[in-house]
Amino acid sequence: KPFCSAWPSAVVPQGGHVTLRCHYRRGFNIFTLYKKDGVPVPELYNRIFWNSFLISPVTPAHAGTYRCRGFHPHSPTEWSAPSNPLVIMVTGLYEKPSLSAQPGPTVRAGENVTLSCSSWSSFDMYHLSREGEAHQLRLPAVPSINGTFQADFPLGPATHRGTYRCFGSFRGSPYEWSDPSDPLLVSVTGNPSSSWPSPTEPSFKTGIARHLHAVIRYSVAIILFTTLLFFLLRRWCSKKKMLL
User: Fold this and answer.
1) CATH code (residue 27)
2) Most buried by CB count within 10 Å: which residue of 27, 46, 138, 153?
């Protein structure tokens, strides 16, 4: 089966552009593209594409799941298996939520940090993304005490520094997202490897100490064995002289 991808990203702002690509075996650069859910996209049906398909400008109707099938020009009736599902998310349809960090955006290595995404809009789901990564985390929104709708993303020990954003969406249109929150830079101070060594991966100093202890034990054993052997040989030689 071919592989379907989006460039520059599968998360696209409304009014922007995205190129859908179908990667197939060498010589198989002709494909058809179809949408599985959401609003149908008429320009896809009964059309053959070469290598890629540009969507511009992107509208909410383009949000959804896509697959492609490839075929060889010499065998137009023989199609490949369907590709992996490719989900296109369209952003900028609702007001942006806010993103905050607890205990704060700057934490020490090994300290837990939680990112909270909230809004006065009654979003059903929040999506958290980190700059430079393709996948997102998602959690259902729950009503908070102050009347907002919130989701808390526990990141655990703060070793993942980076810039984060979150989006909100509704259950009826899961691929149509809000504007992104303001970017939140999470900074981590200290050295995680020295402050929190892994029990399965000892630190460099610990490794040296263990190696040194092993060498000492081995050296002591050799000295004791050599001394014992010396006394045994000496005693044997003494007995032999007495017999002569």
Assistant:
1) 2.60.40.10
2) 153
